[in-house]
Amino acid sequence: MSTKEVVVADIVKAHKNPIAELVQVACQFDSEITLESDNRKINAKSIMGIMAFNPTSGMTINIVANGSDEEEAVDALESFLAVC
Which intervals hold domain HPr (predicted)? Predict the structure, then answer.
């Protein structure tokens, strides 16, 4: 299991459709990926989950991945969320 804590940048400015693009990044990996914040845990591959989670600028999120490509998955999501 790989875990990393990130502070979300202003992804709305950096991406045209940040929620859909975040799900697309997560879906590139075989690992199970969850995002956790404030006692909420969602599947990063679920567009409805991401919409409800609503990652916003300044929010602290734990990215947790478990699987064969977990480290790459965590790094890719960190790069997406921490883009400035």
Answer: 1-84
